[in-house]
Every structure is written in structure tokens, then in C-alpha cells.
Design goal:
2 domains; alpha+beta; globular; 6-stranded mixed beta sheet; Methane Monooxygenase Hydroxylase, Chain G, domain 1; Archaeosine Trna-guanine Transglycosylase, Chain: A, domain 4; 6 strands
């Protein structure tokens, strides 16, 4: 699937609503086999073809699927691996591609980047405003560096373009650093917003 605003990270789970006829057919075929398909974010800078994908995406496995009475479906898709697009094999009845796995460099053990990310999250409630506490407990329970940062990015980064850049950052230390910089910018933005808001209540902002 080539989607305009969706970036899937390995280890993370995202909900999907399948309604287009081509993707209904793809889902029928996928559920009969390995229950896996790839998600690529559409690249708006490449307008020479229809729905041009970025070069890096993720393969996911369907953890749950529910078909609705109207033929649409709701899925829970879990990312399992970064992949690089090599070739579009066919477009009909849905897109098939050939990919290769992307290997990521390990994180130097002396870097305490996971703890720095958690410290930022704990110091600014606005970064996790819409996340249930159970999800935060799950995130804190991830000890391995790569699953931790990928799940954190999926949940806390709401900019699709920045997510794509982070997905393409194969050096794990650089991915952590870039994500930390993103969270710091978001923290400063939230602090500035609160200063500008002052004593104005949320329901009064539109009146000013």
C-alpha cells in the first residue's frame, strides 16, 4: 500500500481501514498466505508516476482482521522489518513490489539515549497527551534500543515527513539523536504556546 500520510515502523502496531476495491482484493490474497504486506509513504516530490512511493518502507504482519458487513475491513498491522524498494513488478489488480531488507547499525552500548528519551517524555506531559498510560507502561518496558525508539517514534512523532526521515535513518545512534531533537523542538513549542496562552482558558482561545 502506498499511502499519503502513513509511515509504519518495525515493532509498532497501527490500525488500518481497508475500503478501496484493489486493497480488498489484496487483503483477501494476503490472508490466504503469510498475512504480510508492505506500507510505503507516498513521495510528493516524485510526480512522474501515480502514487510514487518513497524508497524505504516497512513490511507488516496482520495481527487482527475484522471484515465489516459492507465489505470493508479493519486491521491491526504490526511492522516487522524496514525494506528498500527495488522494483515495481505490477500495478494491477494491486501493486506488487520487489524489496530488500534494510540493515541498521547497532547502538554503542555506552550511549544512554533511551533514558534521555524517557526523561523528555516524563518532563513534558504534552508530548504524550493523547496516549493511554498502559501504552506508556508498554513503551517503558521495551529494553532493546531499536524496538524502543521505533515504537516511540510511531507513537510520539505526528509529522509524516519527519517520520519518513527517521524511518530512513539506518544508523541507530543517529535515529535516536534526530528523534531527541524532534522531541526537544516539540517541548519548546509547547512551552511557548503555554506562555502565549497565559491565563486564557482553552475554550477562550478562539475569541482572541
Amino acid at each position: 500500500m502506498t499511502l499519503r500520510g502513513m509511515v509504519l515502523f518495525p515493532h509498532a502496531v497501527v490500525p488500518l481501514y481497508i475500503f478501496e476495491e484493489r486493497y480488498r482484493r489484496m487483503l483477501d490474497d494476503v490472508l490466504k498466505e503469510q498475512r504480510m504486506f508492505a506500507i510505503f509513504k507516498e513521495d510528493p516530490e516524485r510526480d512522474s508516476e501515480e502514487e510514487p512511493p518513497h524508497k524505504v518502507g516497512s513490511v507488516g504482519v496482520i495481527r487482527a482482521a475484522h471484515q465489516n458487513p459492507d465489505g470493508t475491513s479493519n486491521l491491526a498491522l504490526q511492522g516487522i522489518a524496514r525494506v528498500r524498494l527495488l522494483e515495481v513488478v505490477q500495478e494491477e489488480p494491486y501493486r506488487l513490489i520487489r524489496v530488500e531488507s534494510c540493515s541498521c547499525s547497532p547502538l554503542p552500548p555506552e550511549l544512554e539515549l533511551r533514558e534521555r528519551i524517557l526523561s523528555l517524555v516524563d518532563s513534558e506531559s504534552g508530548l504524550v497527551e493523547n496516549l493511554p498510560e498502559e501504552y506508556l507502561d508498554f513503551l517503558r518496558g521495551l529494553k532493546e534500543p531499536e524496538p524502543f525508539v521505533d515504537v516511540a517514534i510511531q507513537a510520539l512523532c505526528h509529522c509524516p515527513d519527519e517520520k519518513q526521515r527517521l524511518l530512513e535513518t539506518l544508523d541507530l545512534g543517529a535515529r535516536y539523536t534526530r528523534f531527541e531533537e524532534f522531541l526537544l523542538r516539540e517541548k519548546r513549542r509547547l512551552e511557548l504556546y503555554r506562555k502565549l496562552q497565559g491565563r486564557t482558558r482553552e475554550d477562550e482561545i478562539d475569541l482572541n
